Each structure stands twice: as C-alpha cells, then as structure tokens.
Amino acid sequence: MILLDFHNKIIEDTLLEKLNNPPAEGKYEGVEITFADFDGVMFHITTDPEQKNLIRVSISIKIFKELAKHGVNEVLKQQYGALLISAESGYDATVQLDLAKPPADKEKVAHNMALLKRHCLSAPFKKVFDDIENKKAPGQLIELQYRDDEAFYIKPEADRCTIIFSVQFKDADDVVFAKIFLQEYQDARRTMSNAPSVTYSQKEPPLELKGVKNLAVGPTTGYVSFVLFQPHVIGKKKETSIDNIMTFRNYLHYHIKCSKAYLHTRMRNRVRTFLQILNRAKTEQGEKEKKTITGRTFKRSDDPQQESQDFNI
C-alpha cells in the first residue's frame, strides 16, 4: 500500500518549470490553468495580464466560510506571509509569486504553494490540537460538510479528540471491501504501540454524533471514527497527524479500487487458465480413408469432419 501525496502535483510542477526555466530576454509567457482537486476543490493558476512575471495560484473551497470561523486566514498568513494577496474574483484565497525575483529555495516555496488546500483544511485541526496541547477547555463539536453527501466532525475533549468521517459508498461491494480494509486498522493496535483507536459503524452514526441534525443513515453509509490522544496532537506529530487524517477518505477509496482491480485481474487470469485446459482436452480425430467399390481411395472435398478440424470446432 502507498500513501497519497499531500500536495497538488500540478501546482508544484508548473511553478518549478517557470522558476527553473526563466526566459532569455525577460519576456515571460502567460499561464492559464483551471483544474479540480478532490472534495470539489477548484484551482486556478494564472499570470497577471500586465505583469506576466507575477504568477498566482487561487483556490475555491465549498466550506471556506466555515473554515474562516476556525482561523483559516491566520493559518494562511502564517504559511505564506507576503505571498498571500487579496483573493481572485470567484475564489477564496490567492497566493502570488514573482518569477523575476525567485526565492532562494525554489523547491520549498513551490511545494508549500502546492499545499494550499492542505493548509486551508488544516485550520480546524490546528485549533483543536493547540487547545489540547495548551490544556484549554474543550470547545463544541465542529461539523464541516466538505462534500455534497459527506462530512467530517471534530469532537474535542480535554486530553484527546475524536474525528469522525461519514463515507458514502456508491457500490454495495465497496461496503464489504471497506469493512475488511478498516478491520486492519483495528488489528494494527495489537502490534503497534500508541496507535490511534479506529472504529467503523455501518448504517447508524456513532454515539459521539448524538444530537447532530441531518445525519445520513442507510446501508451504503459508513462512519469511521479516529480517537487521537495527546501524544498524536502535540509537538512534531501534530503536522503528521493532520496530513494523514486529511487524506484518509481518498486513501480509503483508492485502495478499495485497487483491491477490486486486483481481484478482476486474478479472475481474468484464472479464466484464461481454464480455457487453456479445455483446449488441450479436445480429442483430435484421425482422417478415415474412403474407398470405392474397385478399391481406390478418395477424399471428399465437402467432408464435414474435415471442416470441423480445419475450423477447430
């Protein structure tokens, strides 16, 4: 199994190409790229029409207004500083880089700008984790409807927090794969120390969400709960926990699709093996000589037996 990237590869590659290949005469070419990311996020990479050395990366997130309540603007200012400018029309946040004045560490800056989505969605996690680290009183349950039919919830407590994902499965087979896959998370605690607690509930939401309105309930709805204890949310492990928890939903569906593709490949190989065995089992009938009354042999041109052998029927 592999871990998915936390950054956007298109943004990083585009910025590195521009930074590493400056024009000979200082005439920068315009850039206009619009593309989508997971969870309904839209990105827009463009250059200033009048100053093409200024390249901008803008992001549009469905829940940006809710994230603003949990300090997303402060997180972006901390991460980007002077690179953060007024948001482009139709987008929620914009960062700008001057190609004529490239930074000393080009790879680091390009990678950090490619983490724009990650930094936006990390705001509520940072707030809750900081409260736990500073031993502040726990706040209210945080609900973020980051997809049309899915949401995640953060329930802070004094020394831990519970993060719950609601997951919708379009295929009934995916429910079975998810149960088997998530069972490995639970079994991992037997061999790994200090691993977070993971539970999976089908059809019914967990008790931590009691009182939350408009919860999805049904045979194709699942709820995955992670209990992160204090060692997981303080110090250097804080950022690692945020990276892994934010990519969980995509990680789950990615490996479900990989498992299905692997099973289909095994099934096709097994069918091919069975066909080879059946083809080897066919008996070859020898050609019979036909004779006339005078004893001469002959071969019929329309012999049906010969035709069946020629066409391997």
Beta-strand proportion? 15-25%
Number of beta strands = 12
Largest sheet: 5 strands, antiparallel
CATH architecture of the largest domain: 2-Layer Sandwich
What distance lies between the first and last C-alpha atoms, to the nearest angstrom?
Answer: 45 Å
CATH topology of the largest domain: Yope Regulator, Chain: A
Description:
The radius of gyration is 30 Å and the shape is flat. It has a 5-stranded antiparallel beta sheet. A 5-stranded antiparallel beta sheet has the order 6-7-8-10-9, with helices on one face. The chain folds into 2 domains: 9-121, Yope Regulator, Chain: A (2-Layer Sandwich); 136-261, Yope Regulator, Chain: A. The model is unreliable at 307-313 (pLDDT under 50). It is built from 10 helices and 12 strands. The protein is 39% helix and 20% strand. It has helices spanning 9-20, 64-68, 72-80, 106-114, 116-121, 123-133, 172-191, 237-246, 248-280, 304-310, and strands at residues 32-36, 42-47, 54-60, 84-85, 93-98, 142-144, 152-156, 160-168, 197-202, 221-229, 290-291, 297-298. It is an alpha+beta fold and 313 residues long.
For this entry, give a set of tags.
Yope Regulator, Chain: A; alpha+beta; 313 residues; five-stranded antiparallel β-sheet; disordered C terminus; 2 domains; 10 helices; 12 strands
